[in-house]
Amino acid sequence: MVSLAVSDLTKHFGSLRALDGVTFSVQPGEMFGFVGSNGAGKTTTMRIIMGVLAPDSGQVLWDGKPITFAQRRQIGYMPEERGLYPKMHVGDQLTYLARLAGLDANAAKKSALYWAETLGIQTRLKDEVQKLSLGNQQRVQLAAALVSKPQALILDEPFSGLDPVAVDVMSKVLREQTVNGVPVIFSSHQLDLVERLCDRVGIISAGRMVAVGSIGQLRATERPQWVIDGSHPDKWGHLLPAGQVIAATASDNGTRTIIETESRDGQDVLAAALAAGPVHQFSPNKPHLTDLYRHVVSSDQKPETSAAAKAPRSRFSFGKSR
After folding, report:
1. Where in the chain is the domain with CATH 3.40.50.300?
2. What phi-psi label fits residue 274: left (phi over 0), alpha (psi between -120 and 50 degrees) or beta?
3. What's the CATH code, domain 4-217?
4. Which of 67, 146, 309, 311 to pair with 157, CA 20 to 30 A apart?
5. Average pLDDT along the chain, 322 residues, taken 10 residues at a time
6. Which CB contacts under 8 angstroms, 24+ apart, belong to 64-72?
C-alpha cells in the first residue's frame, strides 16, 4: 500500500501561472476528489504526477520520497481525452496495455477478460474501440487503467458521459480498489457524486488549492446553522439577537429559513420559532459540496479590497493550503 502526495507544485505556460503552490496528499485506501472549474489546474496536476509534464518547482512524492519512473509505471492513469487506439479491438488493446505494464501473456489476457466482465464490456472484446458508444469507450478506458493491477489510480473525469447504471458500476469498482488499499484520485464536475464517494476533497481555483479536507470538515460551518419551516423569521427572529438569517424562501408551510446562531443544540431557535406559530421542520443545516464549491471559488476569484482583506473569507471552516 502506498501514499501519493504533491508538494508545492508550480507550473507556468508562458505568462500563465497554471499551478501556484499546489499541495495535497492521498493516503492508502483513500478516495480523493479533485474538483475545480475548467482550466483551474486539475489536468495539469495529474499530468505532472504521471510525468507527462515537468513542474517548474515542487515535487511528487511516493511514500514520502520523490517518485521514480518505475513507480509511475505502477499508477493506473485515465486521461480525460481518451488515449485508446481507435481501430484496435478492445480485447487486444487491454491485453497489449497489460503486457506493456509488465504482465506476462497469460496474466495479461486473464486481467483483460476480468475487467471487461466487471465493467460490462465482455461482449465488446472483438469490437474496434471507435465503433463503441462514448459510454462504453469510457468503460474501456477505465479497464485500461486497471488491467495492470496498479498500486495507485489517477482518473481525470472518469464519470463523464456515463449513464446512471454505468456510474454505479464504476463507483463500486473504485470503492473496491480503495478497500484493497489503493489510493484513488479522481476529478469530476459531478459534485454530488464526489460528495457521496470521496473520503476527502480538494478544491482548486486558478491554480491554487483553496480548500482541502474531509466532506465533514468542509461542510462544517463556523457557527451552527438550523433549518426551520414555518412562519417568517420577521415574526420570531428578534428573539435571537445573535442569529443571522442565511436564507428565507417560500415553502408549502410558510417560509423555509436557514438561520445561523451560537446555539449548539438549537432549542432556543426552535422555541423562538414556535412562539410565532407551528413549525413543520426543524433540523441542523450542513451545506452541500456544490454550495461550498460555489462559495470558495467565487470568493477566491474576487479581488480583495482593504476592507475585504480584513474580513473572514468564508463562513465555512476550511482547511486551506496555499
Report:
1. 4-217
2. alpha
3. 3.40.50.300
4. 67
5. 94 95 96 93 96 96 95 92 87 94 93 94 94 90 93 93 88 94 94 92 93 84 86 88 84 88 86 91 84 72 41 34 38
6. 64/3, 64/5, 71/2
